[in-house]
Design goal:
The chain has one domain: Hotdog Thioesterase (Thiol Ester Dehydrase, Chain A), CATH 3.10.129. It contains one helix and five strands; from the N terminus they run βαββββ. The longest helix has 20 residues. 15% of the residues lie in helices and 40% in strands. Strands 1-3-4-5-2 form a five-stranded antiparallel beta sheet, with helices on one face. It starts with 12 loop residues before the first strand and ends in a 14-residue tail after the last strand. It binds coenzyme A (COA).
Length: 130
């Protein structure tokens, strides 16, 4: 089931698109996909920050193709850059559909920036990575 997916890396999340996520046209609501992208991007950000992060900016997000009910959505996320308190993450989204004659499609590219925060929600410096 990995045909057509990026080789050599694992998705940070896989989630099925269900009828409850559909818009009035029957495709998947873009806002649901944006939420999945935000969650996926936060995973490497939290690991890099060694703690809580908040999303400060969605720098870019493209919807290349529609997502349909029944698609298996795979989200890949990796840190692209860091600052003093911020972490910028690139997210790529693929879907796989029709397991009998499997199709894989790239659905979205996104870049988001997260900020490491303390218990009061104030920016905190990223820890050194050894
Ligand atoms: C994120 C937040 C803590 C930043 O607080 P702040 O006082 O503006 O902090 P700063 O100005 O010191 O900026 C912190 C970092 O964010 C970066 N940043 C701020 N705005 C940014 C933007 N629009 N795009 C990219 N990076 C941005 C800064 O460059 C800085 O990075 P660095 O330390 O690596 O140089 C604050 O804006 C906040 O709480 N926002 C709401 C977050 C949230 O609720 N997200 C979920 C929405 S549903």
């Amino acid at each position: 089931m990995s045909e057509g997916l990026p080789p050599g890396i694992e998705p940070v999340m896989r989630v099925p698109a269900t009828p409850t996520q559909a818009n009035t046209g029957g495709d998947i609501f873009g806002g649901w996909l944006m939420a999945q992208v935000d969650i996926a991007g936060s995973i490497p950000a939290v690991l890099r920050a060694r703690g809580r992060v908040v999303t400060v900016a969605v720098k870019d997000m493209t919807f290349l193709k529609p997502v349909y009910v029944g698609d298996m959505v795979s989200l890949y996320a990796a840190v692209a850059a860091t600052g003093r308190t911020s972490i910028t993450v690139d997210v790529q989204v693929y879907v796989q559909r029709n397991p009998v004659a499997l199709e894989t499609h790239k659905i979205s590219d996104a870049r988001l920036t997260y900020v490491a925060v303390d218990e009061k929600g104030r920016p905190r410096s990223l820890p050194d990575v050894g």
